[in-house]
Design a protein that fits this description.
The chain is 11% helix and 32% strand. The chain is globular, with a radius of gyration of 21 Å. By secondary structure, the chain is mainly β. Strand 26 and strand 27 form a beta hairpin. It has two domains: 237 residues, Acid Proteases (Cathepsin D, subunit A, domain 1, Beta Barrel); 166 residues, Acid Proteases (Cathepsin D, subunit A, domain 1). The strands form five sheets. Strands 3-4-10-5-9-8 form a six-stranded mixed beta barrel. Strands 16-15-20-21 form a four-stranded antiparallel sheet. A three-stranded mixed sheet has the order 14-17-25, with no helix packed on it. One of its GO terms (molecular function) is aspartic-type endopeptidase activity. This is Eukaryotic aspartyl protease family protein. It holds the Pfam family TAXi_N.
Amino acid sequence: MKTLALIFVLINISSCLAKPNHINGGFSIDLIDRDSPQSPLYNPAYSQLDRVKNAFRRSTSRASHLSKRAGFTSNISSININISAVFGDYLMYIKIGTPPVKVVGVVDTGSDLTWAQCKPCVYCYEQLGPLLVPSNSSTYRALSCQSKGCKALDKNQLPCDASNKCHYEMGYSDLSLIRGDLAVDTFWFGSTPVKNVIFGCGHDNEGTFGEDASGIIGLGGGPVSLIKQPDYAIKGKFSYCLIPYSNNKTNQTSKIHFGTHANIAGPNVVSTPLIKKDPSTFYYLTLESMLVGKHNVSTEFPLSKEGNMIIDSGTTLTYVPTEFYPDLVKTITKVIGNGTELRPWGFDLCYKNLNLDRVPSVTFRFTGADVVVPPEKMFLKTIKGVSCLTLFSSEDGLAIFGNLLQQNMLVGYDLVNRKVSFKPADCTKHA
């Protein structure tokens, strides 16, 4: 599978870099759906069904990759398609260096290290935007092998050489590979500089990377994540509000908030603990039970152990812990009837001409937090006249609460107090 992400700050595609909003030391930035007209990855020749199909394929590949990283021998089918190792669903724009250079990256809560392509290149994939030139930045500094940042790389650190520079290597499940120098530089969020941000300066980036993206923005929970670094600006907190796919033909973008601006308060907020597990990159939650409407989804097995599901912004679909899935499907079919045998692209449960008024909401009962998912998020139109369930069994892989179910919610991560919070919202009003 593939994983990628790169930093934040919006540039209006048609104009100049937008300034983030500053509220009590925090800031907010546009989060761009890769399939929206504002995205450099947008292909106007694709129909909505084409985009759904590609999102499904990215999702299955990503789920397989994340499962392998978590130590599972995943049975989730990894579909090898030419959509590049940039497989996340949302983008951000930033600038790096002094003077600053514009960078676009794919946002990834399943990765820690932020990286961008740098000159000189042993091998660099073709990129539309400019590559970083470290020697041109007065604030660039390569990190030594003895630095805390280098030690935090763990298994991704390459052996030190006579230069004493910290080198990294990271691979993806499609055999794409990135290598480079670990460094610090100034990152610019609009007109606001944040100094000494650790990132990967990639000099050898081989594989199926797309020319429209410069690299990855790592928003995972590990020590070299962007969220763990500039404490004075971000304070271990970020949140986002994702606009539904049905709105992606507009000029609105979703929002991502950092620092104190990421606080979620008021009525209808529910919070669940973040569970510490390996790898530390992932945001683990505990799913205790589920409801289909008012019907309990039972399990033949004992309650799953703590941290049995991760929440991820880069995976479209949701993968439910295996012990819940059979009764989940059984309960849904009891309520709305048996599905059609026509199941495109490997979906498990599909209906012809589905009336959403017949579909109940599904409640994910996390520890301390009931998160209600409305019917329109439960089924996705795949081919003409056919809608399919957006939930799958993790099949001994990693259970994932994907971004489709997170749309029209404020979702907040607090790494200091170790919790994730949810609040229903109309995300078009947060744009």
